[in-house]
Amino acid sequence: MLRFFFVFLIGISGVVCVNAQQQFEIRYLGNMGIALTHNDSTILVDGLHDFYEKDYLPTDATALSTMLQQKTPYKKIIAIAVTHRHSDHFDSTLITNVANVHTAAILIGGDQTRSLLAPGLLKRFPPIADSITIRLNTRLEINLRRIAHTYQARHSAIENYRIEVVWNGFRIVHLGDADLRPAALTSLKNNPDIIVIPNWFLSNEGIKLLNELKPARVLVTHISPGDNESHKNEKLRTASTAFQKYGDLVIMKL
Ligand SMILES: [Zn+2]
Question: How far is ligand 1, taken at its centre, from the CA of residue 160, in Å?
């Protein structure tokens, strides 16, 4: 709570207002896709992809329709972030359709995803380095860091980015298809409010890394719709929620 007040007071530079309660909602959109909503604004991470194979839940059609109609909770999408170009995380047509409606949304991702979008969108898609901070305003920043994609023997050329959103003191980390190794969490501050992991981080090694990071909550994703077992691991001491079906929702308050 102290951390929140500190950030908030800096953000409004001199105006003292400490009684507002900050509410953040995280909705599951499919595979590793999430929508983070605060007040009327929403940030998507890996939230727009079409059917790829049956093991990968595509973006929820109802949610997509709601976004295109700019209805609650998707009245105002302010950022569309993508960890990497694989079709269970990214679809250029869906992103284009949503970006054309939500014209203020910034597009965030690596060069490989940038190169797959139409030239007209690129002025809203800043080129990035291996590690970069994008500040949307004084109270919202998005940090990207390139980390290895899992299954390096096959996917070593894929640029996978870890995406960290810091918003009014609330901090969420999304790993994309991270390879299970300590470097996946390099340079992260401890105690993020949420970390979104692929299910293969629920191994003993992954749980050890997560316990060192001490997130307040772990969201387990990238679970095949037909698999009811892979997310079950009682050794995970951090509070966790397996995101496996549309409509799963986590509400956190600061
Ligand atoms: Zn991938």
Answer: 8
Predicted pLDDT at 244: 84
- Indicate the SS3 state at residue 250: strand
Distance (angstroms) between ligand 1 centre and the Cα of 29 equals 17
Rounded to the nearest whole angstrom, what is the distance from the C-alpha of residue 143 to the centroid of ligand 1? 20
| pTM for this model (two decimals) | 0.90
- Per-residue pLDDT, 20: 64
- Closest to 142 measured CA to CA, from 86, 202, 82, 71: 82
User: Block means of pLDDT (10 residues each) for the chain, length 254 residues?
Assistant: 35 45 94 96 97 91 97 97 97 97 97 94 92 96 98 95 97 98 97 96 93 95 83 75 88 89
Residue 37 to residues 49, 77, 168, 213, 217: CA-CA distances in angstroms? Answer: 19, 9, 12, 24, 17
Please give the angle made by the CA atoms of 87, 199 and 99, to the nearest 5 degrees.
Answer: 35
Residue 83 near residue 46 (C-beta atoms within 8 A) = yes
Please state, in angstroms and rounded to a whole number, the distance separating the CA atoms of residues 77 and 34: 12
Calpha distance 232→53 (Å, rounded): 23
- Ligand 1 centroid distance, CA of 158 (Å): 8
Q: Which helix (H) or strand (E) holds 243?
A: none
CA of 142 to the centre of ligand 1 (A): 21
How far apart are the CA of 87 and the centre of ligand 1, in A? 8
> Which domains does the chain show, CATH number per domain?
23-244 (3.60.15.10)
| Contact (Cβ atoms closer than 8 angstroms) between residue 52 and residue 238 | no
